[in-house]
Design brief:
The structure is a homodimer. With about 170 residues, chain A is of the alpha+beta class. The first copy, chain A, has one domain: Gcn5-related N-acetyltransferase (GNAT) (Aminopeptidase). The first copy, chain A, contains 6 helices and 7 strands. Chain A has a 5-stranded mixed β-sheet with strand order 1-2-3-4-5, sandwiched between helices. In chain A, helix 1 packs across helix 2. The longest helix of chain A has 15 residues. Chain A is globular. Chain A starts with a strand and ends in a 5-residue tail after the last helix. Chains A and B meet through strand 1, helix 1, helix 2, strand 3 and strand 4 of A and strand 1, helix 1, helix 2, strand 3 and strand 4 of B. Strand 5 of chain A pairs antiparallel with strand 7 of chain B, so a sheet runs across the interface.
């Protein structure tokens, strides 16, 4: 199946937003999605964007049952390791189920790695849920390490009232 | 003890670099540190920086045995959740041992939360090693959740030859 991977444009945000929800449903956390396509447009397509995104597009003849041509996306940004330096972080990688098995996911992942290397990133990182063995296997087969298993790193988060409390206690200097 | 928290300047990179190594020694991974203060200067203090940093500075009369006045730092950057939006990610938080117990660590953490809130971030995230219970307790006491424990998120990484292999397989489009 012919497909093209290209940098997302502002006009793709409705498609990206639709697929963000599809991915969250797969991850069994769809009630957590609070983002709108307007926010994606603002945060990814203005000056100093908070993320970059690639989309996979098929030709007219292969469009989905519902008429969609943008059938996959990879959303990423740059982070920093104080031990190793620049890192590209893959937040989401998704291909619509009916388009899987055509190398689109692999193509998106490789393209993110290529973009990262061009920016002198020495790492590509991401997170995956512990029950999601198909995805873990997909990455492991390509050489990824599981750092939670091997080094014991845990994710920690402040949000809501806890984040407000912290911010409100900031020293005035 | 009097201390001031301020945005790091390029001239602070030698102090930051010194403390990055001290923190890595504490985390028992000092052999992993490959970053130089020149790289920190390039990556944090040019256009479109990869990170931002706060430092804690004490007055002359309180300087360390070795003569250091910059005695703590918080290095952070912005990431993005496709479910919730803007996030501030705290990569490193460190206070030199002889200056602990004076509220400097708490001050740095709160200041990062404040900076994040000003940028409309809805989350402050970070990672901590599973054996490092003092640090886990420090964050938990302030309301942080452990997402690896509660939701099962694992960290995954590609680097070195595995990252090169991925990048080299990127579709040409």
């Amino acid at each position: 199946m012919d497909f093209k991977i290209r940098a997302a444009e502002k006009e793709d945000c409705k498609d990206i937003s639709r697929m963000i929800m599809e991915l969250a449903v797969y991850e069994k956390m769809s009630e957590q999605v609070k983002i709108s396509h307007e926010e994606l447009e603002r945060d990814g397509f203005s000056q100093n964007p908070f993320f970059e995104c690639l989309v996979a597009e098929v030709t007219d003849e292969h469009k989905s049952k519902e008429g969609f041509k943008v059938v996959g996306y990879a959303l990423y940004f740059y982070t920093y390791s104080t031990w190793k330096g620049r890192t590209v972080y893959l937040e989401d990688l998704y291909v619509m189920p009916e388009f899987r098995g055509n190398g689109i996911g692999k193509g998106l992942l490789s393209k993110v790695a290529e973009v990262g290397k061009k920016k002198q990133c020495v790492r590509l990182q991401l997170s995956v849920l512990n029950w999601n063995t198909p995805t873990q296997d997909f990455y492991a087969a390509k050489g990824a390490q599981d750092l939670t298993a091997s080094e014991g790193w845990h994710f920690i988060r402040f949000d809501g009232q806890n984040l407000d409390n912290l911010a409100n206690e900031a020293p005035k200097s």
